[in-house]
Write a structure and sequence with these properties.
Structural class of chain A: mainly alpha
Strand content of chain B: 25-35%
Order of helices and strands of chain B: EEEHEEHEHHHEHEHEEH
Radius of gyration of chain B: 17 Å
Distance between the termini of chain A: 22 Å
Distance between the termini of chain B: 37 Å
CATH superfamily of the domain at 1-78 and 151-158 and 184-227 in chain B: P-loop containing nucleotide triphosphate hydrolases
CATH architecture of the domain at 1-78 and 151-158 and 184-227 in chain B: 3-Layer(aba) Sandwich
Shape of chain A: elongated
Helix content of chain A: over 70%
Order of helices and strands of chain A: HHHHHHHHHH
Number of strands of chain B: 10
Largest sheet of chain A: none
Number of helices of chain B: 8
Number of domains of chain A: 1
Number of strands of chain A: 0
Oligomer: heterodimer
Largest sheet of chain B: 6 strands, mixed
CATH class of the domain at 1-78 and 151-158 and 184-227 in chain B: Alpha Beta
Shape of chain B: globular
Number of helices of chain A: 10
Strand content of chain A: under 5%
Helix content of chain B: 25-40%
Chain lengths: ~260, ~230
Amino acid sequence: MKAVYFKELQLNLKTFLIWSLAVGMMGLLCILLFQSMEGEMKGMADAFSNMGAFSDAFGMSTLSIATLTGYFATEVGTVHGLGSGMFSAILAIGILSKEEEVHTGEFLFSLPVSRTKVVAAKALCVATMLTCFTLLCALFYVIGFAALGEEIPTADFVKFMGMQLLMNFETAGICFLCSSLSGKNRMGMGIALALGFYFFDLIGRVVPDMKEALVIGPYSYANASEIFSGVETKAAAVVIALILMVIATVSAFAVYNRRDLAS
Amino acid sequence: MEKVIEISHLTKNYGKNRGVEDVSLTVEKGDIFGFLGPNGAGKSTTIRSMLGFLRFSEGSISILGLDSVRDHEEILKNVGYMPSEAWFYMSMKVEDAIRYAAKVRGVDCREEAEMLCERLKLDVKKRIRELSLGNRKKVSIVCAMQHKPKLFVFDEPTSGLDPLMQKIFFELIEEYVSKGTTCLLSTHVLSEVNRYCRHAAIMREGKLTLLDSPKIDDESFLKFYMD
């Protein structure tokens, strides 16, 4: 199992580096742009905070984008949320199905390693990569705050990155299940799922009647504006996320163990 | 004689489509068993059921005295499989693919792998994506043989190999078999069966017919391919 795990890490290293550097550096660039935009931000902050439901949806009614924390929550929060969600989906939705898609399954599964161990090694690889992705991006953001000489709100920042990681795990869990069902890499479906989760959350915040349904979406507990403005995270949302993640992952093991593998 | 493969009343369907029906087969230790049949007859389905790629609906398969479902991992430790299409991770180098197979098996096969690569004239520094089908087949041969398994399962192994490599491949099989390995050889090439196999069977439309002798003439052989 160890050999399969390390091989998976090696095979996915390029994707990991591309996504983590792209998202992390985009976040860093956003932070560094703050100083040059600070003056204009003051005027914009008032306008953005009075746009009704849209201000609520993007958290601009509770946070001022004229402050670095508020700016980070609204801008970098969106970049990281979307980027990490898509990376999780792309990584997890192809990791099992690619063996059949590129016909390497017969080589791998003719070696003395059970399907359970292969699925476990691949799940562990996804978890490792998402954790490293979060840590690397966090490092970029911390560098950004330090470069501007601003103090980082540590507790909120750690909570934000932690909740984003949980959201990534949940998205990856669902996509991992999809991967176990199919012999083809459904990357498009993975991206659509991640974007769908994001827009579900966005619409849920704009449309008052949908507010109650928000807890089922992975982005509900990972919302940067809420976390940085001190809004308490709904425990139900986190519990639902954990349950969904566990069910999806366990189902992936069950499905993959039972089905025929395409040649 | 020790039974290495024992398939009993194997039935495998793909939904409403036929796979194999009531297949029973025994291969004894030290045999080179020819497995013939037209495309879609069920040879690969039988092999893939043996190796645990497919979940069969009825029957049982015992390999090296172990149950193919319950003892799947243990069986694969002693099996060298060569699929008809030899695919590997494209970004890997040949030497990495060979080393990876040995690593997953948890055995040091360096000496045997080196000998096999030399005999097969395989350039281990090349990347898999740079290889032709024939050269990918050679990598597959090394991966199947380097751990000196008790059973070879070869699915159309010679397609893509040049005549010299085919000769070397069969020489290798005979060397391993002389040391106690057993070989199940699925092929379309009658001459290979006539020349190297000690027993043979033909599959047609999911059903298996055991042949009295592997030495059959072209006409009788082709009858199995006709409606």
